[in-house]
Amino acid sequence: MSLSSYFHGPATSLDDQIESYATTRVPDSQRWRRPAILLVLTGNVTAMFWFALGGQMGFLVGWPALLIPIAYMVIGATVVGALVMRIASQEGLSLPLLSRGLGFGARGSAIASFVYAVNYVFYFIFEGSIVSHGLSEIAGISIDSAGASVVFAVVALIALYYSWRGMHSMNILQRFGMPIFLVLFVIGMVMLANGYVLVGPGEWAVQDGVTATAMWQALSLANGQVVFQALIATDYGRFVKRSVSYAGTAGVMLVELLMISVVMVLGVFLGFTMISHFDGTRGEQELAATDPGLIFAVVMGVLGVIFAILTQVRINVMNLYSGSLALSNAWDVLSPKKIGRQWWMVLLVGLGVVLYPINVLQYTDKFLAVTGIMTNTWIFILLSDYFVCRKLLGLAPSSQIEYREGRVKDWNLCGMAALAAGLAVGALGVAGAYPMHFASFAAMLVGPIVYIPLAILTKGSQYGSTTQAADADDTADDNRTEVAEALE
């Protein structure tokens, strides 16, 4: 077997490539090797978002305190991602589909799926805005003009093209995109070194010193990514072979996150090096110095804009793909009329173009706090259901988890009550009842604390009356598939 085969997915029909098993299990015959999965995930590693997030953390706590929130994110996301990715690989299901059986019910999962999709609308606009800001610097196109929206739309259509056939076309993009990204980045660093005074870690200091509040704010930014990175990885991890262990899925997550941490530190380096070159108040300078599209355009000129466009396309194919999976699941349980996954990507592009003028970069900290509350509560309920209620207490099967309508309840009242409780506690923090930077931590703890006792009290009745029968049906289906593949 050639080395290149480790970075390719199995052959499949065009229809299956486009639909990408958005509302069904991924069959064993369509599983990918881990290097191929990791290659696709490199689009996330090199997202401009990580330069910006690293810069924001750096301006909050400086060096070396910066390493604390980064370490928390790497360790936390590796652990959560390893657990969730292995569940997805064993079941061949996306997280929205897993949510139907793991704590929420068919219609209840639609709520979680909608929340999940909202995240991708934000990240899609975020990355697109960075490109527009770079073009604004080079071509004088105002970032809130119709011209900037047109630029955003054109680049978004390129991302749509490369996400149309799901994993297969994304794999091709990342294969040729990664080397180009590395070459342009090295050129940019050389141009930065030749034209600017570089500011190293010894000078990454905050003006008023590191306070407990600033550290918690940085940790809150990291906490929003602890679960969200696991969610992204799992959308692709459902294609991982069933034989991969927890150590194997942890390895995929750790490699990805270590690369991300390097990009974040580079974001701090860029921020402190460039902040003195922007005008305005300290807050305005920091906002500009955490805008990588603007920075690379200033340092590299037209090459910087090309670099930003390439980087944005590489991550936005992932934003469109994962967002379309979430919306496909939500629609699947809300309407009998099926809409293909690809058309949900078209909708996401449309929403991005309409909402682009908001300039979401200035709201990053608030958005990450709110979405951290929602996604963290959701996933910790799901994990508590799988590992405590199913594996430890035996309230329902822990394999061949049911997801089909009619086999699971429309609403799992335990999960919905726990989700409501977690969101309510988090909302109190956002409203100012207690510091907002504690909100995502509080919400993700409250969810499981409420869910587990309710599942025990209801004795697993909220899963659905035909769970065991469905388990047997799916096992029989898998056996027939294995026999058919052996005969081929």
From TrEMBL:
GO terms, molecular function: cytosine transmembrane transporter activity
Stored Pfam families: Transp_cyt_pur
Residues that span the membrane, as ranges: 35-53, 59-84, 104-126, 146-164, 176-199, 214-234, 246-272, 292-310, 343-361, 367-389, 410-432, 438-457
Subcellular localization(s) per the UniProt record: Membrane
Membrane topology: Multi-pass membrane protein
Record's GO cellular component terms: plasma membrane
Gene3D superfamilies named among the record's database cross-references: Hydantoin permease
Keyword Transmembrane part of the UniProt annotation: yes
Origin superkingdom: Bacteria
Family that this chain belongs to: Belongs to the purine-cytosine permease (2.A.39) family.
PANTHER family associated with the record: CYTOSINE PERMEASE, CYTOSINE TRANSPORTER CODB
Protein's recorded name: Cytosine/purines uracil thiamine allantoin permease
Organism of this sequence: Mycolicibacterium mageritense
